[in-house]
Design goal:
Keywords: Pyridoxal phosphate
Organism: Candidatus Colimorpha enterica
Pfam families: Aminotran_5
Protein name: Cysteine desulfurase family protein
Helix content: 40-55%
CATH superfamily: Aspartate Aminotransferase, domain 1
InterPro entries: Aminotrans_V_dom (IPR000192), PyrdxlP-dep_Trfase (IPR015424), PyrdxlP-dep_Trfase_small (IPR015422)
Strand order of the largest sheet: 1-2-4-3
Length: 120
Amino acid sequence: MTSRGIRAVGEYEEYLGERLKNGLLNISGVTVYGAGYRGGTVLFNIGGISSERVGEMLDAEGICVRCGYHCCPLGHRLLGTGKGGAVRASFSALNTVRDADSLLRAVKNIAAEKHIIIHP
């Protein structure tokens, strides 16, 4: 990491986050939360599916995200994420464009199939 430089690492993480955010904004039924600088972190929900269930479905695809209120229920109240919080994807210097695109494809598939999912 030090050979790349801290600034370059931060810019790369932000690039991956922006790539994910922009892709999510083009998927019907997906809500992206927060405005302004977010670094490599993106908070989202797929309408009609709990964040916990989305996390389980992504885990089944080998994709690791965090779900819920992320130790900040008041922040989620302000963002309006609703009952159950949201899904958080976070990128680091070790992630790749392929990782971001794999997450996008998985979310697109989940959103497209949500009408057949039985909600717990």
